[in-house]
Backbone:
């Protein structure tokens, strides 16, 4: 009898997990609950990599958000990422954003607080144009920028660009926005913060929008593993892909130039990811360190010994010099 | 025999040209139809947003001005410099007050000047995360990529959102010429320590051109008492023939000018980062072979090796 229950219980759990993974969203589980599983570090990297601990709302956030919103639509945004109908930044976008958290308890933001803002700012993206990332924020941004407007990471979409790297939180008192200090991500007494709720719901929408094949850039040098259970990609983005519209997940595993090799396409946590993709009814491809990723890494560390390109080009010029000399000898010799 | 030689030569030239044409066709085309020719709509909001953002910790490192700048006031000064004036008669000193209102002081050893290399210099400085171009400072950041011009219409805001004169229009002194003249002179004056300048060595009209903003306003305004060294970085555009190298042509002219001014200089024409930034944009280009790609014979050297072999065979045949 004891044997039977022991066998039965894990199976039931396994089935539940499977059913959960198979559904576009884990039914019965709120975004707030999903977000609780996300690693604090992962959120910190996503929300604001270089934020000073305990810093308050970014000063002049209103002017910065409105400025970026126009900048994206008029100057810096990639064509396919701009909204078809112009969003009026000062009277539409900003109020929707600020009303989501101002004059509220900073630790108790409703999970649908940013619904109006994300609805206004969401632009339908090109097919095959979605890039997810985990531990590779800058690389994903570069991939997107170098794609010539055909691929987007969340941070290069209209909604992501407008608030990326900013800090914000509300307070029930005074002006409604706390410019002095915002709660830190690892504060257990502060479970539902404005920026985590925003990035959680924006990531969810971003994943639901994806069509065709999607790419995910993972860090194969991360000692915790390239694909982690508690990453935003694993908990929010992957489960929200619509497997009837997404056929391929292209996994790109990138290793730091002088970093250790923890996971590759054929080892470690990538195997778990492949398994989850197949269980969701999609196909995968996987590539370790594609050339573009190496080139981008080398722009940041050009002196690294494996980034040697210029001397190679030089040897080409040397070839040409020899050629010219020989050719001139030949012509004068035969004349 | 001589006819045969010429024929072989023609075939060789054809081979080389074919390769060159292939490279040319790879180059992407920029937009054919600019969206609008007037002042960028919502220029004020964009200006304010960028101005405030540059003064927060999240924008460009090292780019903070020495003291806080009131961005609303700065916009007024920028706007009033040309508002309601004839858009084709903007005096070169129109932005004097704007320059005076920006207390920006570039940190020592951080100035990056450039001429003809806008397609690479900003990605370069972003990757290097160390050097600042004019467009990374409070002088140039707010209006980078924007278009603006004045309107003489008294009922307007002073700016023309419908139509702006062309930058190169003859007999027309446009606002951006005055703006970049003033800001270039200012960053030239402000430069201290080691400065860097990035020039295009594949231009047929010379890397260092007398009529460039760098030659006219930035270099002449550098103070040899404050600038200790000038590092010249030459860019070889992928697929373009190299016209000049360090010590030749107009680069030699610039080197001499540095010496005459009493400023030490260095020059490099094979900067690694220059290649990687360009190759990131065009990873399949034949010049972008990373060491991992070259096991055995490399794709770039193969055609020239074949040509080399052909010439050698011809020479041997000639001798026999």
Residues:
């Amino acid at each position: 009898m004891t044997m039977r229950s022991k066998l039965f219980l894990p199976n039931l759990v396994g089935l539940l997990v499977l059913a959960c993974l198979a559904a576009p969203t884990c039914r019965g589980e709120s975004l707030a609950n999903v977000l609780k599983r996300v690693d604090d570090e992962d959120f910190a990297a996503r929300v604001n990599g270089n934020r000073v601990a305990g810093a308050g709302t970014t000063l002049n956030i209103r002017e910065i958000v409105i400025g970026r919103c126009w900048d994206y639509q008029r100057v810096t945004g990639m064509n396919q990422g701009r909204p078809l109908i112009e969003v009026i930044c000062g009277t539409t976008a900003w109020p929707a954003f600020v009303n989501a958290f101002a004059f509220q308890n900073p630790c108790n933001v409703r999970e649908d607080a940013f619904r109006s803002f994300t609805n206004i700012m969401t632009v339908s993206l090109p097919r095959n144009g979605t890039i997810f990332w985990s531990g590779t924020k800058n690389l994903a941004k570069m991939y997107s920028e170098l794609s010539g407007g055909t691929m987007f990471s969340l941070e290069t979409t209209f909604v992501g660009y407008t608030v990326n790297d900013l800090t914000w939180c509300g307070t029930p008192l005074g002006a409604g926005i706390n410019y002095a200090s915002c709660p830190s991500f690892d504060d257990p007494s502060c479970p539902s913060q404005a920026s985590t709720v925003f990035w959680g719901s924006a990531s969810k929408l971003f994943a639901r929008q994806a069509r065709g094949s999607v790419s995910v850039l993972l860090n194969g040098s991360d000692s915790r593993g390239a694909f982690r259970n508690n990453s935003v990609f694993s908990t929010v983005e992957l489960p929200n892909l619509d497997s009837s519209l997404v056929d391929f997940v292209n996994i790109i595993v990138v290793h730091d130039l002088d970093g250790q090799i923890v996971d590759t396409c054929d080892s470690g946590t990538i195997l778990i990811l492949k398994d989850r993709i197949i269980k969701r009814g999609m196909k995968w491809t996987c590539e370790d360190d594609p050339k573009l990723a190496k080139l981008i890494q080398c722009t940041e560390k050009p002196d690294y010994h494996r980034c040697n390109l210029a001397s190679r080009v030089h040897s080409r010029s040397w070839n040409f010099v020899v050629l010219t000399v020989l050719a001139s000898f030949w012509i004068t010799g035969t004349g | 025999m001589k006819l045969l030689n010429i024929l072989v030569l023609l075939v060789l030239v054809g081979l080389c040209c074919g390769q060159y044409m292939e490279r040319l066709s790879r180059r992407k085309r920029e937009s054919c139809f600019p969206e609008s020719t007037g002042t960028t709509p919502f220029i004020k909001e964009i200006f304010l947003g960028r101005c405030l953002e540059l003064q927060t910790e999240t924008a460009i490192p090292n780019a903070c001005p020495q003291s806080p700048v009131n961005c609303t006031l700065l916009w007024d000064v920028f706007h009033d410099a040309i508002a309601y004036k004839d858009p084709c008669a903007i005096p070169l000193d129109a932005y004097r007050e704007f320059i005076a209102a920006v207390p920006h002081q570039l940190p020592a050893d951080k100035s990056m000047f450039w001429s003809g290399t806008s397609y690479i210099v900003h990605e370069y400085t972003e990757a290097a995360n160390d050097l600042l171009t004019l467009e990374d400072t409070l002088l140039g950041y707010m209006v980078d990529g924007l278009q603006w011009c004045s309107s003489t219409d008294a009922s307007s805001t002073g700016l023309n959102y419908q139509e702006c004169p062309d930058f190169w229009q003859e007999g027309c002194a446009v606002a951006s010429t005055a703006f970049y003249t003033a800001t270039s002179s200012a960053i030239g004056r402000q430069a201290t320590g080691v400065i860097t300048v990035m020039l295009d060595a594949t231009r047929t009209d010379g890397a260092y051109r007398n009529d460039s903003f760098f030659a006219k306003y930035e270099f002449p305004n550098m103070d040899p008492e404050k600038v200790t060294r000038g590092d010249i970085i030459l860019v070889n555009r992928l697929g373009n023939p190299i016209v000049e190298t360090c010590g030749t042509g107009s680069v030699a002219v610039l080197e001499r000018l540095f010496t005459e001014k009493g400023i030490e200089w260095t020059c490099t024409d094979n900067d690694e980062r220059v290649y990687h930034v360009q190759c990131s944009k065009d990873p399949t280009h034949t010049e972008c072979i990373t060491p991992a790609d070259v096991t055995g014979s490399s794709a770039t050297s193969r055609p020239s090796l074949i040509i080399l072999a052909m010439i050698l065979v011809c020479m041997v045949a000639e001798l026999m």
